[in-house]
Amino acid sequence: ASMTSKPVRNQSFAMINCDDISYFKKILGERGVVLEEEKLDDANTDWMRKFKGSSKLMLQPRSTQEVSQILDYCNSRRLAVVPQGGNTGLVGGSVPVFDEVLKEAAKLGEMSQLMLGACALFDTVHFMEVFLVLKHLDGLRDPLPSAKHNFYILIETTGSMESHDKEKLESFLLQSMENGLLNDGVLAQDVNQASSFWRIREGIPEALMKAGAVYKYDLSLPPEKMYNLVEEMRERLGTAANVVAYGHLGDGNLHLNISTRQYNDSILSKIEPFVYEWTSEQRGSISAEHGLGLMKANKIHYSKSAETVQLMAAIKKLLDPNGILNPYKVLPTSILSQSGV
Ligand code: MLT
Ligand code: ZN
């Protein structure tokens, strides 16, 4: 049920042969070379089951030296490579499109995950749809059960003195309720309560998957404009779909998710290109945090000028002259073939 029309396989890439496999076994040992269909199946499919490749080989390097040996070899042989971490991507960026070699990056990625953890501190004002999550996931409790509200905001602060943080949040809550900004609010009393609030926010993508098919957009917009798009989309789609909005208020990141029973071209044609055009008119970005991946490789012009895209292609060509690294993603295939990548 892919939402993206597939590009054509680039025939300048070689196909894997027995000599390649022997070489990889020599440098990685038997256990670093995965050929089992079942394991490959998992890695060939993204977790939302929207994108599917047909890689025949996954490599599991354990050191940067092994990584560079693999890449050297793949480059000289013109074997395309897709690095994969947790395979939790949302735009088809981490699964092969055709028969690219998979390279498991999870065991090497610990350092850079660390960095993601630290960045997440800055991104702590979230807004969400509580009702949807409570309906589709078990074991969760509405922290504000007395009434159903349209908008929920989750705020987390990190400070060196817990009592001081609490005091500040309490007075913020009181003030905001007094001046009519908030109707209701609750403060987590301990780590367990805090994590149960987070479970609701983090459960949204999962709840949406359970609800049926979902068209996902990851947009960056001026916060005061975000809800206009949600309303316009609701008007366009009527009862055909449920338009759900959540995201990261702190960085103007709207996750516009359109939930339907099943994927359907007539609904898709009401969403796209409208959603991209609207975002472009507001000078927003069509990719806030999920990346362009395969899904939006041909949509980059809604957010970036032709010159910028050319420059990106030129940098890519400099670092990856044969274009073997994660092909068909991020940049339009037309630009890549023009610049000979
Ligand atoms: C999130 O903020 O929950 C993630 O980006 C996943 C998603 O957008 O569904
Ligand atoms: Zn997000």
List the helices and strands and how they pair.
Blueprint: H1 18-28, E1 33-34, H2 37-44, E2 58-59, H3 64-77, E3 81-84, E4 101-104, H4 110-119, E5 125-128, H5 130-136, E6 152-155, H6 162-178, H7 191-202, H8 204-211, E7 213-220, H9 223-237, E8 242-248, E9 253-260, H10 265-271, H11 274-281, H12 306-319, H13 333-338
Parallel strand pairs: 2-4, 3-4
Antiparallel strand pairs: 1-2, 5-6, 5-8, 7-9, 8-9
Helix pairs in contact: 5-8
The protein binds D-malate and zinc ion (ZN).
What does this structure look like?
The protein is α+β, with helices and mostly antiparallel strands. It folds into two domains: about 20-115 and about 305-340, Uridine Diphospho-n-acetylenolpyruvylglucosamine Reductase, domain 2, CATH 3.30.43; about 125-290, Alpha-Beta Plaits (2-Layer Sandwich). The chain is built from 13 helices and nine strands. Helix 5 packs across helix 8 (about 205-210). It starts with 17 loop residues before the first helix and ends with a helix. The model is unreliable at about 115-120 (pLDDT under 50). The chain binds D-malate and zinc ion. Zinc ion binds near residues 248, 255 and 289. D-malate binds near residues 90, 205, 255 and 289.
